[in-house]
Design brief:
mainly alpha; rod-shaped
């Protein structure tokens, strides 16, 4: 009978030791699951950012194709060239007026020499 309390004491010590090992195992599993969750979360965020980048590139490609390769959007604005044409016409009129005034001055000088 003297060994029965010792047996119960050993059994309780074994139960405490196994309980500590089970708690350690559960904490280790929880840490592993937390790390695994963070890894999956990071991977999903990277995947989401990659998909957003691909969507942005696709939209940008569509917009560029719509604006630069469509015939209606590419129009020539030649108003600056039209200003050159108007300036040439004005310069031609000025040249004609200057030549006429030169002829008039020459006629006046010739008339003054004759008098």
């Amino acid at each position: 009978m003297a060994s029965l309390p010792q047996l119960i004491d050993v059994d309780q010590q074994l139960d405490v030791l196994l309980h500590n090992q089970r708690v350690l195992l559960l904490v280790t599993i929880l840490i592993f699951l937390e790390v695994l969750t963070e890894i999956v979360k990071r991977d999903f965020l990277l995947l989401a950012e990659l998909l957003l980048l691909l969507m942005d590139i696709g939209v940008a490609d569509f917009v560029l194709a719509a604006f630069f390769f469509h015939v209606d959007f590419v129009q020539v604005h030649d108003t600056f060239l039209e200003l050159f044409v108007v300036a040439e016409v004005v310069q031609a009129v000025v040249d004609i007026l200057l030549e006429l005034s030169l002829v008039a001055f020459l006629l006046v000088s010739v008339l003054l020499k004759l008098l």
